[in-house]
Amino acid sequence: MPAVINAAGRAVPTEINGKPVIPFKGVGKHMPYGNKYGPPIPSCSDFPDDGNKVVPTLEEALLRCGIRDGMTISTHHHLRDGDLVSNRIFEIASVMGVKDLVWFPSASFPCNDPVIKYLENGTINRIEGSMNGPLGRFVSEGKMKGTAVLRSHGGRVQAIQDGEVKIDIAVLVAPSSDSYGNAKGTGGKSACGVLGYAKADSMYADKVIVVTDNLVDLPCLPAEIEGNYVDFVVVVEKIGIPEKIVSGTTQITKSPDRLLIAELTASFLEKSGILKDGVTMQAGAGGTSLAIAVFLHEILKKKGWKSKFGFGGSTKYMVEMLEQGQMEYILDAQAFDLDAVISVGKNPRHIPYPVFNAYNYHSKGNLTSMMDIMILGATEIDLNFNGNVVTHSDGCLLHGIGGWQNCLHARNVILPVPLFRDRIPVIVDEVTTLCGPGELIDVIITERGIAINPLRDDLFESVKESGLPIKTIQELKDEAEKICGKPSKAEFDDEIVAAIKWVDGTVIDVVRKIKSK
Amino acid sequence: MSNSYATSGNSGPKVRSDCEMILELRDEGGIVIELKSKVQILYGESIEKQCVEILNYFGIRDAYLKIDDSGALPFVTAARLEAAIKQLIPSDMAFLPELLEENTYSTSSGRFRFSRLYIPGNAPGMMINAGLHSADGIILDLEDSVAPEKKDEARILVRNALRQVSFNGAERMVRINQGERGLKDLDFLVPHNVNLILIPKCESTSSVRDIENRIMEIKNWFGISHPVYLMPIIETALGVEMCFEIARASTDVVAIAVGLEDLTADLGVARTSDGAESFYARTRLVNAAKAAGIQPIDSVFSDVSDMEALRQTVISSKALGFEGMGCIHPRQIPVIKQGFAPGPEEIEKSKKIVLAFENAREQGLGVAALGSKMIDPPVVARAQKIIDLAISLGLLSGNWMNEIPAVPK
Questions:
Q1: Cβ-defined contact of B43 to A393 (cutoff 8 Å)
Q2: Distance CA B250, CA B257 (A)
Q3: Which residue has the higher pLDDT, A353 or A66?
Q4: Nearest CB to B331 within list A259, A423, A447
Q5: Which domains, ranges and CATH numbers included, belong to chain A?
Q6: Chain A residue numbers touching B44 (CB-CB < 8 A)
Q7: A window 237-256, beta carbon within 8 A of B
Q8: What string of DSSP letters covers A326-349?
Q9: Which residues pair with A450 in a beta bridge?
């Protein structure tokens, strides 16, 4: 396969899964032209006049959608680790003898590990989406027939809109739906809060199936999935396991070291002047991020400041800011815990805001570039501030990209990370897999010091008298290696097992098969 | 010899930064290592190399070694293997990792000991970052927090930690065991730049002197000149009655601490939050320490989730005259430090007193006055101590006298 060196210096192929791909050209350099992809034209006269699209089973819905070899089936991940439907699709396809499907999830979770058997028996050719745990290992060992393609949440919408991925059948689980297919993330026994990741799928797929365990009277409002895009509605006993859909409560870290990192992060944001009245912010649901949210909340209160809006992944701690008056709005792509699910259901200032609008490269503007504070993680960061979120230092695929790449466009991208995790250094000479170019990553905050990207001289100037432990990234790396020892590198075969797409659809890096012993 | 094997360390799903070793000595076949490690790809080779080096150091050429590694750092791996070896071959040899340059500092007898963080002596994961939380002292504990069957391996681990883990300038403390075992513990500590030894359940001057003498012997043997201070812990009714004598038992005793869990047990009373049951013991200990010119240190506060109750306890502790407390969680450290640090009003008042005294001296006056009040020398000395403390805590500039307008006459 021909390979080229892309603008990030990585050797990438020009063809993946038999289709030509464009190597990464640099941030904001790729400008595709032409028109957006359009799904086939439907006619309302093909659909029942009474609007009732309910069919008895998922099998029948899939058959009536014309499921056949080689099709692309999409799902969303709002039910997270409690999803009971995705695996079922491939179980049905396997029984039908359908081969070589492409699974296009917005993310996969440990509950999806059973699809390994459908990858092994040929029902699924490949996954284009995140992979972790046993599924990641399966791919990293070169056992998947096709090549995996990993995209960010925004990159997934981009690929749908510019026709890079054509969804044949979207199977969209919904906690509430009416018989017409208007659906939402609240209500019922499997509430997940919002359904933002499903929006592009519903609009661009050839066929759309809504699967619910809570059929409500027409109209189901406010509809996040609009019934006029939906072909069939299937009612099942149970779409998910509630306690695995949302964690009852997200837990702030109790680790003194993580709390120290969170405290340093809040202190950095305060002393650098990034935190201010009217600030916009986003933080994740990890234990450290939650602690940062709490510390930032305290500072906002103390100063009498208010955040203009927070972009969710929302949690209890963001909801507290909203309810106690330190945050004007929560715009929400997904609700992580029960407090967030309840809040989005009742608080008019807590509003579903799909990644379709927020993260998409083909939008006329980017919400993330309007954010002042962006708190993100990484498995590895290198001396050039490049970040890796998909593989571990041992070379195995471990996480999806999520919204990580999209969020890098924020004004101040802060990565609070431990300097090492159980002897595994986080700062390395060169990232195993490049997911985000260093020019977009501004500050690394570890328990042993803070490194500021040399491109951000302004930030350096703002904190140089602050007493904060500012170090160079080289100093941080040396400190980690002094404690942990110099690590050996993972070794790889030549075979490419996964492609990493940048937000614009170009190939920024690839993951190769881990060397067999 | 072929049937003898030893185990050391810890493994399991919740274990981090540690490893478990199973060592079997053999008569032939060379060294066979079976390594299962979370960091196999990154450090597998270096772990095996390190283990072979240690086995060879102890003269072992034929052995089977099984390692279950959860990301142990090299000083931990070395300690675990040495502990396993010593179960099979009694030896006075020690495989010493390098003593880091930054671990060679000494401390002074009068330094502040507001917060001292207890770290269990057999928990390597908690040692690695202990120095990041700005405690005045870090106590590696060989006594109550180590299970009896783990005492020997903890000693070796603590020794290696003293050499290899940087505590960022915190006073390097170890709580030894009681009695004979405690004296033997000293062999693993004194040559490795320990700054202070805590003596548990101290009831007599003779136990302090035994420890002092043993430390002196080891220091002479190794040619060590830096001080090794002592902090006896009073944890029994008898100890309370003896505390003044204990405080003066050796010039190396720089502080005495009270341990309320054991003391209340010995008194046969329940430990309460207002502490009425230990009021006598605490005030007596403060008095004894002040009479002996050393620091009285309060017990640990055991509810790590209740920071407000801790804050209140610190306030009452400071009011009784204590000059520090133990911590069992790093989050307690800032609360304790803030509590014992002088407040802004206290600092302002002290500044005025010191300035008035300086003014009087410059004018050749024998006595200083602030307003209509005469200032006695002990008041000045106390004010100066608070100023020094404020400067050392960063609450006041070292150059404060030149930064503010002089007090109007």
A1: no
A2: 15
A3: A66
A4: A259
A5: 48-128+165-244 (3.40.1080.10), 256-492 (3.40.1080.10)
A6: 488
A7: 256
A8: SEEEEEEEEE-BHHHHHHHHH-TT
A9: A445, A470
Q: What letters, b where the CB count within 10 A reaches 16 and e where it falls short, cover A494-510?
A: eebbbbbbbbbbbbbbb
Spatial distance between the Cα atoms of B325 and B116, rounded to a whole number of angstroms: 7
Q: How far apart are CA B77 and CA B160, in angstroms?
A: 10
User: Helix or strand or coil: residue A259?
Assistant: helix
In this prediction, residue A1 carries a pLDDT of 63
Tokens of B191: 């040559």
Angstroms from A206 CA to nearest CA on chain B: 45
Q: What is the per-residue pLDDT across A240-259, written as a single tens digit (0 to 9) for each?
A: 998 898 776 678 888 999 99
Tokens read off for A420 = 């090492």
Look at residue B186 and tell me if it is in a domain: yes
Q: Determine the distance in angstroms separating the CA of A249 from the nearest CA of chain B, rounded to an integer.
A: 18
> What would the pLDDT profile of A35-93 be if each residue is shown by its tens digit?
999 999 999 999 999 999 999 999 999 999 999 999 999 999 999 999 999 999 999 99
Q: Which residue among A256, A448, A488 places its CB closest to the CB of B45?
A: A488
Nearest CA in chain B to A491: B41
Q: How far apart are CA B350 and CA B332, in angstroms?
A: 28
Residues in chain B with pLDDT values less than 70 = 1-3, 404-409
3 state SS of B306: coil
B232 located within any domain: yes
In a shared domain, residues B76 and B115? no
B34, burial (CB in 10 Å: exposed 0-12, middle 13-18, buried 19+):
exposed
Q: How far apart are the first and last CA of chain B?
A: 87
**Average pLDDT value over all residues in chain A:** 94
Of B42, B45, B72, the CB nearest to A393: B42
- What amino acid occupies position A473? I
Task: Tell me how close the Cα of A340 comes to any Cα of chain B, in angstroms.
Answer: 25
CA dist list (Å): A497 to A11, A144, A209, A404, A502: 14, 8, 30, 21, 17
Which tokens hold the place of A124? Answer: 């699924």
> So what's the pLDDT on residue A95?
98
Hey, what amino acid is at B130?
A: A
Take residue A304 and report the two structure tokens written for it. 């009498």
Q: Which residues of A touch B37 (CB under 8 A)?
A: none
User: Measured between beta carbons, which residues in chain A are less than 8 angstroms from residue B71?
Assistant: 421-424
**Residues from chain A contacting residue B395 (CB–CB below 8 Å):** none
Provide the CATH number for the domain around residue B29. Answer: 3.30.230
Helix (H) or strand (E) holding B291: helix B279-292
Alpha carbon A187 to chain centroid distance? Answer: 24
Answer yes or no: do B334 and B212 share one domain. yes
Closest chain B CA to residue A492: B41
Nearest residue in chain A measured CA to CA from B45: A488
Range of the domain at B34: 5-88
pLDDT at B2: 45
Residues A258-308: pLDDT tens digits? 999 999 999 999 999 999 999 999 987 888 999 999 999 999 999 999 999
Question: B76: which chain A residues are within 8 Å (Cβ-Cβ)?
Answer: none
